[in-house]
Structure prediction request, 270 residues.
Amino acid sequence: MNLVDIAFLLLAAAAVGTALLALLVRELVHTILWVAGFFVVLAALYFLAEATFLGVLQLGVYAGAVTILLLFGVMVTRRSIFRRDAATGIGPTSVALAALVVLLLGAVAWRFGGTGAAGVTAYAPAQLSQALFGTYGPWLLLVGLAMLAALAGAIYLVREGRE
Amino acid sequence: MTDAFTTAGFLALSGALLALGLFGILTRRNFILLLVSIEIAVNAAVLNFVYFAAFAPTTAEALNGQSAAIVIVALAATEIAVGLAIVLGLNRLRGSIDVTGATDLRL
Prediction:
């Protein structure tokens, strides 16, 4: 077990822990703070896999924009943002059951995952942009169209004067 | 750089994250928590793309996986924007963002 493995294990534990906390805490604002931490941990995992551009994208889009959007949603829809919700209804039994399922999944993945290829290939971001705008140009156009439709749809949903 | 990753580790991680997201989608009633759960599940998928790309034998194949991951990230961000617009509409219409009360197919 080398240093990269240890880093991966620590980051994986942090990812599962922050995601779990995000779903289990009872204040909505705390949920969003934990999920912001989750996004940052995932960015670190991407950096570990040599996916530098995706790591930066994750930090900018998720840890930045999505977190702020979610916080904005909480602030607009609540009178006092630090309000405790009712109990989650998750007893120790269900937590134990979920832990069992996770352990089983982990054991199965450990048994049948096998060892991977020789190494992680590093590349220049310019190569990624060539693939993205060359081979995947049509996909990028479709994403742009979807974003345009989402923009129009969001404006339609929240516009003034609707019943 | 690295030569000791196994596919087992990240498959277990992304399986666990998908399970967590699914758990949230099935049990939470708050619309914003629902969106957070969906994001966790989507991020598990992106993690899979990134790590399988890291195991790809050639650079071209690694770039394929990462391009797919970028497209997914962009679409997930779009989905959050529309989801929050629905949250605002629901809040204005019903005064709460509890999804159990949203039984009509119109906003």
The first helix of chain A runs from residue 3 to 24. Chain A has a mean pLDDT of 82.
